Amino acid sequence: MDGGETGEAAVKKQTEDGSHGHRRLDTFLARRRSRSRPPRFSTVLRLLGEEPDERITFIKLIETFGDRVFGALMFIFAVPNVIPLPPGTSAVLGAPLLLIAAQLAVGRRTLWLPPAIRERSIARADFRNLIGRTLPYLRWTERLLAPRLLVMFGPLGDRLIGIACLLLAVILFLPIPLGNMLPGLAISFFSLALLQRDGVAALVGWITAVISVGVLVAISGALWIGVKAFWHALF
Length: 235
Prior knowledge:
The chain has 235 residues and is mainly α. The chain has ten helices and two strands. Helices cover 73% and strands 3% of the residues.
């Protein structure tokens, strides 16, 4: 009897803790959305990582970030590429980026994902590990961000950023050693620019994107010269 009561108490406590975790994020978002200033991106990421569920679905991410979903999801999938990753990881992360950036490029205001992707999920432990490594730098960067140079945004500006991110996402697929770092960094800057409507961050994103393409052209040229030299040496 005592064992049964203890088990029921543990289940009840776990349920209450889970409900409390969900209420914490939902209450925070409701409170912040009632104000003119949106919540800090880093705070929302931290609260998402602290929720009790073992996995996070894409539909949960879409609902959480609302009208900031393009910048938020692009950042989540782009920032891991800034650090060295096992071969093939950048291609996995680049696939969602292609879909998101393409919709931004054509001017969609809401994000559409196929049902098969909307219901997919990622382990919350993996999400926490990623966020734990990113949050200190993100918090520092957020102190520098502010709405400015708003001429960089709007229907045309957002589409141009979407086109640039689409091109950078394609580059992420290419099997270039450490070639995913600069494109990932550029998309991360563009994402933060969209989240905060910061034209300076957008400019940094454009500069980094140009450097990324320049590095790609240089590497491609060097590889082509190497292949030609090897071919001539054989024949």
